[in-house]
Every structure is written in structure tokens, then in C-alpha cells.
Amino acid sequence: MTQNAKPILIAGGGMAGLLFALLLRQQGHHQVVLVEPMAMTLAEGPLSPSFDARSTALSAGTLSIFARLGLYETLLEDAAAIKTVEVSRKGRLGITRMRAEEEGVPALGAVVENRWLGQVLLSAVLQDTGIRVLAPNKVVAAKRLVEGYQVELEDGDTLEVSLLVAADGAQSSLRQSMGISAQYEDTGTFALVANVEILESHHNVAWERFLPTGPLALLPLSQQRLALIWMGPKDYIDELKALPDAALVEQITTLAGEDRIPPLGRVGGRITHPLIATKAVAQVVPYGVVVGNAAHTVHPVGGQGFNLTARDLSLLAEEVGDAQKPGELQVLERYIQAREKDQAMIRHATKWLPDLFRVEFGPFAHTRQLGLVALDLWPSLRTAFAQRAMGVRHV
Ligand SMILES: Cc1cc2nc3c(=O)[nH]c(=O)nc-3n(C[C@H](O)[C@H](O)[C@H](O)COP(=O)(O)OP(=O)(O)OC[C@H]3O[C@@H](n4cnc5c(N)ncnc54)[C@H](O)[C@@H]3O)c2cc1C
User: Fold this and answer.
1) Which residues constitute the domain of residue 299?
2) CATH number of the domain residue 81 falls in
3) Does the pLDDT value for residue 220 go beyond 90?
4) What does DSSP say about strands 139-145 and 131-134: parallel, antiparallel, or unpaired?
5) Residue 382 falls within a domain, yes or no?
6) Which residues line ligand 1 (CB under 6 A)?
7) pLDDT for position 2
8) Are residues 192 and 269 in the same domain?
9) H helices present in 113-256, as ranges
10) Is 374 contained in some domain?
11) What H or E segment, with its residue span, contains residue 208?
């Protein structure tokens, strides 16, 4: 590729920003600048909110992106493979099971704690001399130039960049600076997240239980633990968060099914997340692109958000990598046109899915048997579900 005098600047050092910096470097870009308001040191790990106490289910596709970056082995040092997904619904007999061997793959995906994901990404970024990390620092203003953007940083510095990448989260101020508005949909629901010790092996099974209040997922983690993600109305989630350990364990065991999941031990720190769907009304402008949570924040049902972003960024890096002028609108439009279908499908599927759980009868009742994580880990199922949920295919 032709070298550009001006760098590409990524605002935001969360999952999306760090991954995109590495993908750009893989495409041969020599000048990438990454700006993040929180400290980014290996001693402490990245302090970005992306890397809180959550865990992320990575699909096989996302793992192959990490493999291309040479990070797969390191990532798997502290991750648990998903070999089976078991989906069940309270009040309904039967379990839907998906097994890696039946799909002819070694694993359906892997679950990794966000902190470890952050360490792996950040250590690769810091080792790369072609990425200039400015942290703690912040983009405070961005002005369009004839060819590029002029960016003002909190420390008073200004930079001229060939492409401005807004990876600054759902409340993105950079998105606004680019003149792009966003639609927000507050679902009124929250997710409770915690790690739970198990007294017997999980055998690499991900359990997904659909309750009338919302979905409860227990994902396999390294070191004899499960990652709990329990979604429901705010009051219900607040009550669960406040329960003593023993009472919470009893609730999980009773609702997830004592005969299905391994006996549970201690519960780690609990955090809650509001579930607000966000959609940028546009994702590209001349010399600017909006990615990750800033572009689309979807319901965590199905573990879709970061996997969708990884697919976006992989293509964006390729398009930009081939271009003489990476910020040119026709380059960015080629990217967004190619990504529209996948983004729309995930948006619709994750919007519909929680609603479907609340419907007791009706044509979609049995689609509740379809999996959370499974939707992303098993593309054919995801496609089939999305088609059904959107009414494209009859059940
Ligand atoms: C409960 C829950 C469970 C989830 N589970 C899964 C899962 O299993 N699988 C999956 O694929 N996805 C999952 N997701 C989605 C995933 O977490 C998101 O896709 C991911 O966090 C997006 O990261 P991001 O970097 O775009 O945004 P963020 O994490 O919001 O990061 C934005 C960054 O920008 C920085 N920033 C803010 N302002 C500025 C500025 N002015 N200048 C520079 N930087 C700035 C912030 O400090 C932050 O570091 C889940 C989400 C939730 C809530």
C-alpha cells in the first residue's frame, strides 16, 4: 500500500479500538495513533470500561481473526472452549443440544474474561512500534479538512489525520463531531454479570435457560468457573444482585436445573449493565468512520456485539488497507455496503429474541429453544433463527 503522510487515528482503546489498530498494522499501515482516556499499561492492564468483570463468548470466526493476528494461542492460555451448547426453557420439556463434533469443528467458540482479552490485545498493541498509544488522553474536538480531519487532544496537541475512527463507545462524542446522530432504545432491562466457582467440571458446556423474566446463561470459564449472565427487568436484577451468595446460588441452581449444571461454589464480584440498544444513523462520512459500540450496541442475548464488531473491523481494515486514500468516501461506502446485511440481521435477531421469550403461545413459541450463544457460534442456526424471527422463513 501507499504510505500516507497523515496517520489513521482511532479514538477509543476498548475492544474495538485495540483490535482495529492491530488489524490495520496487519494490512501494512505504518502510522496508527490510538487515543484512550484511561491508562493503558501492562502492569495494570487496560482500564477501559471494555475490560471490566464481564466475559465474552467469542465465535469461531472471531477466533480465526485472532489466529491471523498471531494471538490465538495466547488468548487460549486463559479461556475455555465451548464444545457443547445446551438450551432449555423453563416450563417446557426437552433440551436443544449442539455439539462441536457434530459440526465437524474442534470447538464452537471460546469464552474469555474481558480482562484477559484486554491484556492480550494491549500487550500486542504496545509491542507494535507502528502504533502510537496516547493514554491517558482524549479527543476533545474534531474538525473536517479538505482531505482528512484535524483532531484536538485533551493535552492541547493537535493532529492531522487521514482517517478518523470513532471507537469511543455507545455515547460517542466523536460520532456527534462527525455530524452523525444515534437512535437509542432503552429496553428497561439489565444484565447481572458474575463469575461462579464450580465444584465439578463444566465439560466445556454452555448452558442457556430461557426464563419468563429473561435469559440466564452460564458459560464455561477457565479455572473451574462459570460466567453468569442473567438478564431481566431492572428491579428483578437489582434484587438478585443484592442476594447473599448462598441464596443467589440456590436461585441459579433451581432455575437453571440442578440436574443439568455442576454444583456451584462461591460467587465473585457482581456487576450490572443497563441494556440499551444504540444505532448510529450513519457509520461513514468523508474521512470518518464509526465502529463498535459507537456504531451499534446490541442486546447481549446471543453474545453478538463484539463478534459483529470483529467482522466489521476485519473488512474495514482490508478495504482501507488497499486504498490510496483510506478516508475517501467511496472506500468507506464500499465497506458499509458490504456490512449492512450482517449488521441488520444481528440487530433484528437480538431485538426479537428477548421479546419472543415473553410470548407464551404463537407461531414463534418454539424458537425460544434456540440458543443465546448458539446464535452466533453456529451460523446456520443463526441464519435460520433470524429468517424465522423476521418472518422471512415460515416455522
Ligand atoms: C453484559 C454484556 C455481555 C456481553 N457479552 C458479549 C459476548 O459474549 N460476546 C460478544 O461478542 N459481545 C458481548 N458483549 C458486547 C461487547 O461487550 C461490546 O461489543 C464491546 O464492549 C464493544 O467495545 P467498544 O470498544 O466498541 O466500546 P467500549 O467498550 O464502550 O469502549 C469505548 C472506549 O472509548 C473510550 N473513549 C470514550 N470517549 C473517548 C474520547 N473522547 N476519545 C478517546 N477515547 C474515548 C472509552 O474510555 C472506552 O475505552 C456484551 C455486552 C454486555 C453489556
Assistant:
1) 8-56+114-184+277-349
2) 3.30.9.10
3) yes
4) unpaired
5) no
6) 11-17, 35-38, 48-50, 54, 56-57, 138-139, 167-169, 173, 191, 193, 229, 273, 292-293, 300, 303-307, 309
7) 46
8) yes
9) 114-127, 173-177, 234-242, 245-256
10) no
11) strand 205-211
